[in-house]
Amino acid sequence: xxxxDQPTEMTATEGAIVQINCTYQTSGxxxxxxxxxxxxxxxxxxxxxxxxxxxxxGRFSSFLSRSKGYSYLLLxxxxxxxSASYLCAVRDGGAAGNKLTFGGGxxxxxxx
Amino acid sequence: xxxxxxxxxxxxxxxxQNVTLSCEQNLNHDAMYWYRQDPGQGLRLIYYSQIxxxxxxxxxxxxxxxxxxxKESFPLTVTSAQKNPTAFYLCASRGQGSGNTIYFGEGxxxxxx
Lengths: 112, 113
Known about the structure:
The structure holds two protein chains of two kinds.
Chain A lengths: L1 E4 L3 E5 L4 E9 L5 E6 L6 E6 L3 E5 L2 E6 L4 E6 L8 E8 L8 E3 L3 E6 L1
Parallel strand pairs in A: 2-11
Antiparallel strand pairs in A: 1-3, 3-8, 4-5, 4-9, 6-7, 7-8, 9-10, 9-11
Chain B lengths: L3 E4 L2 E4 L5 E7 L5 E7 L5 E9 L2 E4 L6 E3 L9 E3 L8 E8 L7 E3 L3 E5 L1
Parallel strand pairs in B: 2-11
Antiparallel strand pairs in B: 1-3, 3-8, 4-5, 4-9, 5-6, 7-8, 9-10, 9-11
């Protein structure tokens, strides 16, 4: 099975940087995903890491260390519209059938 | 447009009733998933299907049932055995390939009245 931990809430100021950490313990690993979810809406895909290192996509970057069971999502130049929940998810592989297990999500509040 | 369509968006259920949530995708994806989300919580996997006529229980399958008779469709029935069904239900699908991400429908809000 999977156990995925991330902080419940974070607050940051517009224009600043916020780093959301995610730790996981898994019986199998076939990639880690980050999703953004605004209240009452479906999650939208942000990033995918399967190899160690940093993936950068505009203002958003995601890092993975498989040996440490650790990932983070970095949000730069924060904007008010970035206020949302950010979900870390880990995918099983093999016999588990590519199941995607989510953490509880981190609510980020961006203040002016 | 290609995508995942869930219906209805909002549904009210009386206690003791079964209800079925529809999920249709025209992305030609093999794998489909149903998640439940309670307010302020993460997503929990109910059922998933990797191929037509096959599906597996997720972490919270009790009180739910699914079918996968067609590739495009993966309906979820919330039965009367589910004691606390009020939640936001999300359907998702994924294509082939290890890097292919899961895409979500718009979700269905179910409330027991």
